[in-house]
Automatic annotation (TrEMBL), chains A, B:
The lineage of its organism: Bacteria, Bacillati, Actinomycetota, Actinomycetes, Micrococcales. This is 4-hydroxy-tetrahydrodipicolinate synthase. InterPro entries: Aldolase_TIM, DapA-like. The active site is at 133 (proton donor/acceptor), 161 (schiff-base intermediate with substrate). Keywords: Lyase. Belongs to the DapA family. GO terms for cellular component: cytosol. PANTHER family: 4-HYDROXY-2-OXOGLUTARATE ALDOLASE, MITOCHONDRIAL, DIHYDRODIPICOLINATE SYNTHASE.
Length: 300, 300
């Protein structure tokens, strides 16, 4: 199996008083390694990479590799400026990363040619395989299937992380098949958007790039293992069981604030662990998160 | 007149081989001071602040003040993380800035409370007046009139930079009046989006925060001075004369790539002066920019 298949868990990078809480981060990574996820992706969107300095990110990459035991670690290298992306890539390589995750972050909107050239530059300069990270909710950049294809042809591209799949199973399969037809065989497709994990794997995705797995690896591992055994109904049932969690993600503006509240509730991260200006959930919202965690028996 | 009124010119921060071209930047600032603009705003969106490191930004702020003669210099301090915003604010203050420009940059979407608290923190910690920078095209954050009002009540808020006005003059006046009704009297309103400069001033805005003025100050100064004398028809006529330039802004995805091509064409910036991954205009597009500059006699 490609290392870019199966379950990749995205841990938070918890802060305490605006400083990375290295002990909490190391604890999250050790928890993931023990849960037998297929890979750990540090410094993704959930890892708040966009908010951290190059020095903080280099340190977090090193900690991730040190505490991941033998689990492969992928490191997010996204930044607004290409030269900073290259700096993060070099630091990740020095840290011992097994792969790189790269989204086209934007302040000024980017063209397809801008984005293609960035991937071309990074793959030419780094020896590590690269995951193309399509996250329009944070980057506001829209990949076309044609651009997936152009980028996936670059030597060094290992995987494409797509933002969910259509709700209807036939449409989901057709969507994944359409992407598959544009990219080389060795490039895997990974679904993200945790509510779509089971559906994405059933639709033919090779990997699930998962936020929830970064804090609650067990249910995500159950969904992934069932899917890998072809037990898609069991995977869908487990995903349906977690619907109250997916609903909180949708209601509270995405997964980050909710998963941070989960980690804080379970004592895996210090309180208010997100970088300001992101204040995180308020007390009433945190209470609802805690209720869902208890009702779904996710605290174990 | 408030220093946050009249014409504020936004210079580029030109790069050469990924390093700030300090001589070109100083030249742009000197050109603006000589053109008698009312203020210079360094490190705005046009100044590519989002792409520069804290060290680069501190240096650019110092250069701007050193080369601006007696023209007040405002400095952009926007960043994704509040602690980095505070660092930029402290560096701008040390550089001798007369004010700060702050947009709610996003990677994760922000709530209104997140954004309010950021302005509260910055105004509490900095002695400098702050311009609230509403630029949804780059930040993807939508201010409401109510949020303008809450933020404008904070001590230290001096101005709100709004993203254009409605096309129809009565609607434009009503829009500016609606904002005016929510904010204290001493807080100015400045229009941006250069195609809206004349219309915004006619609709009651106090200031024009202008991209074009950062490279081509003379026509922007003519529009502003006519407006300040009540000669709104003359201002509108000069703005209409520049319509081919506004059309290039619209066609080529905003003002930045076009104004960079203008500065390069006029020898005010080195070629390919924008930070990668922004490749800037292609040769055919640059040819069209050059034609418009010549036809409008803007090269002087």
């Amino acid at each position: 199996m490609s290392p870019f298949a199966g379950l990749s868990a995205f841990p938070l990078t918890p802060l305490h008083d605006d400083v990375v809480d290295e002990r909490a981060f190391a604890g999250l990574v050790e928890r993931l390694a023990a849960a037998d996820v297929d890979s750990i992706t540090a410094l993704g969107s959930t890892g708040c990479a966009a908010y951290l300095s190059p020095i903080e990110r280099a340190r977090v990459a090193r900690l991730a590799v040190e505490h991941a035991d033998r689990t492969p670690v992928f490191v997010g290298i996204s930044a607004l400026r290409t030269s900073e992306v290259l700096l993060h890539a070099a630091n990740a390589e020095r840290a011992g990363a097994a792969g790189l995750l790269l989204a086209p972050m934007t302040y000024q909107p980017l063209t397809s040619d801008d984005v293609f050239e960035m991937y071309q530059t990074v793959t030419a300069r780094s020896g590590l395989p690269v995951i193309v990270y399509d996250n329009p909710g944070t980057t506001h950049f829209a990949f076309s299937p044609e651009l997936y294809g152009r980028i996936a042809e670059l030597p060094g591209i290992a995987s494409i992380k797509i933002p969910g799949v259509p709700r209807e199973p036939d449409a989901a399969r057709a969507h994944v098949a359409e992407i598959r037809a544009t990219i080389p065989d060795h490039v895997t497709i990974g679904v993200s958007g945790d509510a779509f994990g089971a559906a994405g794997l059933a639709a033919g995705c090779d990997a699930w790039y998962s936020v929830v797995a970064g804090t609650l690896p067990s249910p995500a591992a159950r969904i992934t293992r069932s899917s890998q055994e072809g037990a898609f109904d069991a995977a869908a049932a487990e995903s349906a069981r977690l619907a109250p969690l997916w609903e909180l993600f949708a209601e509270f503006g995405g997964s980050l604030r909710v998963i941070a509240a989960v980690a804080e509730h379970l004592g895996l991260a210090p309180s208010r662990c997100l970088p300001l200006p992101i204040r995180g959930l308020d007390d009433e919202q945190r209470g609802r998160v805690a209720t869902v965690i208890e009702e779904l028996s996710l605290g174990g």
